Amino acid sequence: MSHKGKRNALGRGLGALLEDSANAQNDIGEMAAVGGISEVSLDNIEVNPFQPRTDFDKDALNELAESIKTQGIIQPITLRRIEANRYQIISGERRVQASRLAGLTSIPAFLRKANDQEMLELALIENIQREDLNSIEIALTYQRLISECGLKQEELGERVGKNRSTVNNYMRLLKLPPEIQAALRDKKISMGHARAIINIDNVDLQLTIFKKILSEDLSVRKVEKLVRELVSGGTARPAQKLDPEKQYHIQRLQQKLTSHFGTKVTVKTNSENKGDIRIPFLSAEDFNRILELLNINS
């Protein structure tokens, strides 16, 4: 299959890829027709070493096992043959585990050929189609597809059926401080909250806004408004009014003050050396923090 053909198949989703790529492979007692399904012994199946998902909910597995006892396997798994009577899971590890819990000895499967690179790519794409993934898990999966599979963002979008801007929005989340990423992973804040916070460049200010979201239960709209106010507050007077050297020194000073106070400090001045310094605060606690930095008692 040509590279272009492979890309088109992946762009239609994992199901189309597996349907198009299912390949006949013969084995003693196990024979698959093109696009067909074979019963494979569970003893002959091993896990995919590239599987990105390592944690499976035990209660959910037990529920699936009970369903399999009653209904059987509704959706066949997909395997690659690595040697005679030995197979590796491409997709469906959860169904394999549940089938073993249910006491099954074999499982219906599509058989196909895939090299290690394809195994990693297929495992990541299959994983990302789960409905229970949080935003950070999706972002990390996108990052792996780019770094480990050598895909560009546009190619990645084709593989997972998303546009480039959506992929980029997820990957930007990985630039947030670990504390905020963990809160997003644990659903303490939403994707909307995180996307608003990331528009602030200063890490300390990001964390201040994050804590304000938690303490005041701010909506996404309120956070977006807060961020707009902070960002717009940094708008300086037209640069052409200042001498280039003076403008450079003002910008350096503004950066130092912002770093010192942990909030976006703005310095406005004009050619007559008049202006003001603005130090925004987000709460009474934040205000007191700034006063302490100024060594002023409230």
Tell me the series of helices and strands, N- to C-terminal: HHEEEEHEEHEHHHHHHHHHEEH
Helical fraction equals: 40-55%
By CATH, the topology of the largest domain is Conserved hypothetical protein from pyrococcus furiosus pfu- 392566-001, ParB domain
Q: Can you count the beta strands?
A: 9
**SS content category:** alpha/beta
Report the uncertain regions.
Answer: 1-12, 16-35, 234-241
Distance between the terminal alpha carbons, to the nearest Å?
72 Å
User: C-alpha Rg, in Å?
Assistant: 27 Å
Provide the CATH architecture of the largest domain. Alpha-Beta Complex
Write down the CATH class of the largest domain: Alpha Beta
GO cellular component, one term: chromosome
GO molecular function: DNA binding
Keywords: Chromosome partition, DNA-binding
GO biological process, one term: chromosome segregation
Task: Give an overview of the whole structure.
This protein is an alpha/beta fold. It has four domains: 3-122, Conserved hypothetical protein from pyrococcus furiosus pfu- 392566-001, ParB domain (Alpha-Beta Complex); 133-175, Arc Repressor Mutant, subunit A; 186-232, no CATH class; 233-293, no CATH class. The chain has helices spanning 3-11, 14-21, 58-71, 93-101, 116-128, 135-147, 153-160, 164-172, 178-185, 191-197, 203-216, 220-232, 244-261, 284-293, and strands at 26-27, 30-31, 38-41, 45-46, 77-83, 86-91, 106-112, 266-269, 275-278. The chain has a five-stranded mixed sheet, with helices on both faces. Strands 1-2 form a two-stranded antiparallel sheet. A two-stranded antiparallel ribbon has the order 8-9. Helix 7 crosses helix 8 and helix 10 (191-197) packs parallel to helix 12 (220-232). The longest helix is centred in the last third of the chain and has 18 residues, at 244-261. 27% of the residues are buried. Residues 1-12, 16-35 and 234-241 have low confidence and may be disordered. It holds the Pfam family HTH_ParB. Keywords: Chromosome partition, DNA-binding. Residues 38-128 form the ParB-like N-terminal domain. One of its GO terms (cellular component) is chromosome.
